[in-house]
TrEMBL record:
The keyword Ribosomal protein does not apply. Residues 203-379 form the Mannitol dehydrogenase C-terminal domain. It holds the Pfam family Mannitol_dh_C. NCBIfam families: PRK02318.1-2 (NF002646), PRK02318.1-3 (NF002647), PRK02318.2-1 (NF002649), PRK02318.2-5 (NF002652). This is Mannitol-1-phosphate 5-dehydrogenase. It catalyses: D-mannitol 1-phosphate + NAD(+) = beta-D-fructose 6-phosphate + NADH + H(+). The keyword Hydrolase does not apply. PANTHER family: ALTRONATE OXIDOREDUCTASE-RELATED, MANNITOL-1-PHOSPHATE 5-DEHYDROGENASE. The gene is mtlD. Keywords: NAD, Oxidoreductase.
């Protein structure tokens, strides 16, 4: 079986590539990082180490790579593959869509079987978004045939993979925990099964539980930690005031999840406790600026902060901790993050009210708007 995976970065190498290779796929990575592409082709393997006491290490074999700029070669690989996966960042999906469309078109000219395309990004409906971008490049008659032969199941992926510290650009350290959930309701019969993936009929509760617990808690740690001058999530987790904020946001998102999806309350509390322990993992060094990266994406209406806050509000629930976390995100001014730079420029030029509405779509008339602004005014860097 053949898989084409876009993004030989942290999660691509440390999670997706590992599981695909273990399941018997030859994995062809597609990346724009030429050095990494060359190394993958020279070695045909790489190492993944678990962030645990024994530093358990696995060698991932049966891999190769193509430079993303070689669009024709990538399209040919897609035409011959059983599975396409991505872990490039949700904002990059529009840029890889044309090549995927080319691959699908080529594939549909031949006799190749059905294709599954899974976007493994931190977003609600990542594969559905990718499908829309890909369909934007297909002619109407190709779209019709693609609808019958190409499935885009949404997915939720969970494994903390920090920025890497090894000199070897292919060696990745990952936390031991992992969860990959895929919506099987749109998959054709005989779809390629990936060992370790949990296939479900309804993905909504899983992706929202993951995004609004792991990622909401994580960015809350990152933004408050950044303001207090901490460099890593592990340092941040030693600050009891920040842990109280994290537990606060997680009880707010938890109340929404339990109400909307009927999760068992006690089980959800255990899920939260486990996540807080994962953030503390002493064998990981996870920088706050990685976890807080792309604040404009994280402040967008359907992402980990604003969506649960707005839903909670509409259900009559108070969200003081989410309000603080949104305010802290607005104060994220890390100069090497292009979105943080853009956010700070907008704040300077437009002021807090307009900026807040522009990125979160929370209108000035909404009660949460004023509360976020008040929290923003009271938050300062404490470095
Ligand atoms: N790291 C984690 O803990 C983690 C966990 C779950 C989900 N995710 C999600 O996975 C995605 C990737 O995250 P990451 O941490 O691996 O990031 P990363 O920056 O380590 O990896 C992204 C890779 O994509 C490559 N890339 C960028 N543009 C490309 C293009 N046009 N064509 C091909 N490759 C391209 C980059 O060169 C890089 O190697 C994000 O959506 C993230 O939210 C990350
Ligand atoms: O990847 P982002 O920028 O959406 O979020 C940063 C981290 O919270 C994220 O990468 C987590 O480590 C990951 O989602 C854990 O499964």
């Amino acid at each position: 079986m053949k898989a084409v995976h876009f993004g030989a970065g942290n999660i691509g190498l440390g999670f997706i590539g590992l599981l695909l290779s273990r399941s018997g796929f030859h994995v062809q990575f597609v990346d724009v990082d030429e050095e990494r592409v060359n190394l993958l082709n020279q070695r045909g393997e790489y190492k993944v180490t678990l962030a645990n006491e024994q530093a358990d290490t696995t060698v991932v074999r049966n891999v190769s790579a193509i430079n993303g700029k070689e669009s024709d070669r990538v399209a040919q690989a897609i035409a011959e593959a059983d599975l396409v996966t991505t872990a490039v960042g949700v904002n990059v999906l529009p840029y890889i869509a044309e090549t995927i469309a080319k691959g699908i078109e080529l594939r549909l000219k031949g006799a190749a079987g059905p294709l599954t395309v899974v976007a493994c990004e931190n977003a609600i409906g990542g594969s559905t978004q990718l499908k829309e971008h890909v369909y934007g490049h297909l002619a109407p008659e190709v779209k019709e045939r693609a609808a019958e032969r190409v499935a885009f199941p949404d997915a939720a992926v969970d494994r903390i993979v920090p920025l890497q510290q090894s000199e070897d650009k292919l060696h990745v350290t990952v936390e031991p925990f992992f969860e990959w959930v895929v919506d099987r309701s749109v998959l054709p019969e005989g779809y390629p099964v990936i060992e370790g993936v949990h296939y479900v009929d309804k993905l909504g509760p899983y992706i929202e539980r993951k995004l609004f617990t792991v990622n909401t808690g994580h960015c809350c740690a990152a933004y408050h930690g950044y303001l207090k001058g901490y460099s890593t999530i592990q340092e941040t987790m030693r600050d009891p005031d920040i842990v109280a904020e994290i537990r606060g946001v997680l009880s707010e998102t938890g109340a929404v999840l339990v109400k909307q999806y009927g999760f068992d309350e006690a089980e959800h509390r255990r899920y939260i406790d486990k996540i807080v322990e994962r953030f503390r993992n002493p064998y990981l060094t996870d920088e706050v600026v990685r976890v807080g990266r792309s604040p404009i994406r994280k402040l967008s209406p359907n992402d980990r902060l604003v969506r649960p806050a707005m839903t909670a509000y509409s259900l009559g629930m108070e969200v003081p901790h989410l309000t603080n976390a949104i305010a802290a995100a607005l104060r994220f001014d890390y100069r090497e993050d292009p979105e943080a730079v853009q956010l700070q420029e907008t704040l300077k030029e437009q002021g807090i009210h307009k900026t807040l509405t522009q990125y979160t779509e929370i209108p000035e008339s909404h009660p949460l708007h004023g509360r976020i602004v008040a929290a923003y005014e009271s938050l300062k860097h404490q470095k």
